[in-house]
């Protein structure tokens, strides 16, 4: 069970994680994921939520966890960490399609958007560098992505303006991640929005729901996604743990009354 739909970045983190079952009375009630000292995933079934605070604390202590990766869409983990003191390092934003597109002109005119071909690889590298060449769980390099038909190009009569990519989810079959890269001299002219709109169209024509993500501080990409109708629905950050508050026994609402322990 997933607490939220995953884009390709989150799926890659899941593959990198050491995964643990959480067993209670011979029943698997959840899971946890760890990458070194980072708790990358934590989930407990709804019927066992009452045990979640103690389980989380045991995982943190037993696995020497120093950081916890949190997505604001994960309401359980957000609530559990509210009892801890921690520093915060913002990581990423995740977007879903809100349907509304900004501005009077939806797309650039007199351009062509098509599936990338092997003959485009040289131009793609010249414009995008290694952006689409990183090795992942599915594809090893740029050539693999072009051969699979998941990379697209936007061009005018003389130039390749930028590229878009589709990454199908391996866990959420109705989800597809979309992304783009625009050559530096072609930015702020509507190329990014045009690519994203075409990728959204491709997704819906294939009965898939587009999602997207980017680095939290990549303000230009965030702006492009928003202009194409995508809305930020979740923020990811790493909680740098400092300790958990040890609550005394108390009754009543503020100011409340302390209750002494009795044998």
Explain this structure.
- The chain has seven helices and 13 strands.
- It is of the alpha+beta class.
- 32% of the residues are buried.
- The chain has helices at 8-16, 52-62, 75-81, 121-128, 142-148, 191-205, 219-227; strands at 18-24, 27-35, 38-44, 67-71, 84-97, 112-115, 151-155, 160-168, 175-182, 209-215, 230-244, 250-251, 257-258.
- Helices cover 25% and strands 36% of the residues.
- The mean pLDDT is 89.
Helix content: 25-40%
Following the backbone from N to C, one meets helices and strands in this order, namely HEEEHEHEEHHEEEHEHEEE
| Helix/strand structural class | alpha+beta
Instruction: Kindly report the spatial arrangement of strands forming the biggest sheet.
Output: 1-2-3-4-11-5-10-9-8-7-6
Percent strand? 35-45%
Distance between the termini: 42 Å
Detail the poorly predicted runs.
none
How many helices? The count is 7
Query: Average pLDDT across residues?
Result: 89
Number of strands: 13
- Per the principal axes of the C-alpha atoms, what is the gross shape? elongated
Q: Give the C-alpha Rg.
A: 22 Å
Major beta sheet, specifics?
11 strands, mixed
Task: Write a concise keyword list for the protein shown above.
two-stranded antiparallel ribbon; alpha+beta; 11-stranded mixed sheet; 36% strand; 263 residues
